[in-house]
């Protein structure tokens, strides 16, 4: 079996005395979109942060091209992977172009000014994310979706092959959620960027990811294609729900229609409300 470029090996993560993740071994497919899914508190964001070198593991390691990322310098890692955390905040008054410029810092020597190449990459990243008209607009004056695109542009300017995103659609309305997800799909399709994201919405995960990892209590319950992961057993075990799984009429990927809590989560399951839910989603 060929080892992917990015993987964990017997990874343990703790918060103080509290163990969050134990003996985690996962591989991230190169050139694909991977979605980490799980209920609140499952450890998926902790895993993402550790794989992106924001957190340090208590034991084990995260490896990129055979080298431990936690044994490399911050600057070297920043040339290889970029992360967009949850709800990033830019300094007041910072413009889109200034924010995107920050992505070039790992490539600069000392406190040198931007080179022509740096400036060209900044302009490309802004254009790639459809933010040209907001070039000089303060980030804090943008809508939620525009703000996310500006941060993604900054990550693109970093020039890495791997992009981590922690719940990139949180607090966005449906139109802006699709805007961000379609941008990530475009970056993957046209640039072959490896994208790893924590996703709350299971149907977003199956629609936009090639690979899914379902996590419960810091353990991988299932991983593989959306068809392999989106099963009734996984939905019960990971999310504690009963659901119907249907096929997306446009793409054929599996979609989840939850209708009640699983017995082991509720104690005694409530009466099914499947018909009402299906009618409401038409």
Automatic annotation (TrEMBL):
Localization, UniProt: Cell membrane
Location (main, coarse): membrane
Membrane topology: Peripheral membrane protein
Record InterPro entries: AAA+_ATPase, ABC_transporter-like_ATP-bd, ABC_transporter-like_CS, P-loop_NTPase, Siderophore_ABC-ATPase
Claim: Iron is one of the keywords in the record: yes
Pfam family, one: ABC_tran
Single GO MF descriptor: ATP binding
Keyword list, A-Z: ATP-binding, Cell membrane, Ion transport, Iron, Iron transport, Membrane, Nucleotide-binding, Transport
Every ABC transporter domain range: 6-242
Name listed for the protein in its UniProt record: Siderophore transport system ATP-binding protein YusV
């Amino acid at each position: 079996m060929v080892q992917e470029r990015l993987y964990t090996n017997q990874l343990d993560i703790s918060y103080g005395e509290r163990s969050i993740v134990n003996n985690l071994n996962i591989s991230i497919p190169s050139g694909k979109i991977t979605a980490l899914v799980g209920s609140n508190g499952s450890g998926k964001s902790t895993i993402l942060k550790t794989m992106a070198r924001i957190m340090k593991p208590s034991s084990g390691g995260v490896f990129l091209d055979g080298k431990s990322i936690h044994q490399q310098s911050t600057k070297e890692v920043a040339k290889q992977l970029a992360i967009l955390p949850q709800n990033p905040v830019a300094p007041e008054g910072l413009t889109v172009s200034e924010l995107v410029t920050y992505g070039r810092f790992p490539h600069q020597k000392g406190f040198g000014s931007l080179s022509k190449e740096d400036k060209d990459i900044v302009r490309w990243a802004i254009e790639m994310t459809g933010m040209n008209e907001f070039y000089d607009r303060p980030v804090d004056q943008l809508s939620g979706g525009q703000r996310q695109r500006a941060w993604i542009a900054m990550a693109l300017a970093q020039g890495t092959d791997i992009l981590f995103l922690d719940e990139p659609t949180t607090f966005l309305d449906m139109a802006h959620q699709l805007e961000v997800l379609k941008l990530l799909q475009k970056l993957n399709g046209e640039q072959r960027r490896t994208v790893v994201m924590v996703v709350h919405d299971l149907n977003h995960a199956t629609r936009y990811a090639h690979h899914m990892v379902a996590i419960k209590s810091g353990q991988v319950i299932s991983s593989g294609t959306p068809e392999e992961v989106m099963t009734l057993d996984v939905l019960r075990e990971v999310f504690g729900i009963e659901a119907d799984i249907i096929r997306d009429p446009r793409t054929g990927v599996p979609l989840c229609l939850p209708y009640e809590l699983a017995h082991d989560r509720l104690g005694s399951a409530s009466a099914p409300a499947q018909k009402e839910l299906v009618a409401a989603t038409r």
